[in-house]
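ok so i was messing around last nite and threw this chain in just to see what happens. nothing serious, just curious
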Amino acid sequence: MLNHSPVDDSFRALAEPTRRAIIERLTRGPASVSDLARPFDITLAAVVQHLQVLEASGFVRSEKIGRVRTCRLEPAGFAPLADWITARRMYMERRFDRLGALLAEEEADASPRPAKPPGRAGAKNSRRTRAKE
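result:
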């Protein structure tokens, strides 16, 4: 059996549009399983299975009070995924910074150099021609 990392579990859980919609709904606050199931054209049992996947991945926490199971987001469940994304973003930002520095260097090397002003040699020649006249 394969051991999956928390990041793998997170991506697997978020790969399903219904689960993403459930998370989106829970951003507005806790909801009962039946409230979460209402907008979907699937059985209550299917919604419960989606919630089990979200709970196993750490995104959702539920509690049963009487006959009602209430679900809420678990912010700490997003941490492994956020850390993974942050590490890749930092790596790419460093690469882009380096690319920017290389392009700036190349641009500075390729920019035309200002023309040199005429030197004293040109001035001497003009005096000589005046003296001969």
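not much to say yet. The mean pLDDT is 86.
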